[in-house]
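Hi R.,

As promised on Friday, here is the backbone we talked about, encoded as structure tokens. Could you run it through your design pipeline when you get a chance and send me back a sequence?
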């Protein structure tokens, strides 16, 4: 749960820094930042979980690194799918809102 809050906070800060401009370039940048942030937060979470289970630091770091494959794949798909879905849903939302008024 904490991972989601960290990712959301970072994305909110970056998007605010972009002056809430949702250009294609900015949305792609946000998607990549989300993916990279997710990799780092997942790695940190796995290390902490291993340490809490009583694992020494060095094996915890290695085990967390070796279990990152699924997270990396998920993050790459996030970086690709997010811009596509964002602009598709944005267009649909704009059309629906125009019909409502």
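Update: got your reply. Pasting your designed sequence below so it's all in one thread:
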């Amino acid at each position: 749960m904490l991972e989601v809050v960290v990712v959301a906070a970072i994305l909110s800060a970056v998007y605010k820094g972009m002056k809430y401009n949702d250009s294609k370039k900015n949305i792609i940048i946000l998607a990549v930042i989300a993916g990279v942030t997710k990799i780092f937060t997942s790695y940190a979470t796995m290390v902490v979980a291993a340490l809490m289970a009583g694992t020494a630091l060095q094996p915890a770091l290695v085990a967390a690194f070796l279990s990152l494959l699924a997270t990396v794949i998920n993050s790459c798909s996030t970086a690709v799918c997010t811009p596509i879905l964002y602009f598709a849903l944005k267009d649909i939302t704009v059309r629906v809102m125009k019909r409502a008024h």
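One thing I noticed while checking it: Residues 69-100 form the longest helix (32 residues).

Thanks again,
M.
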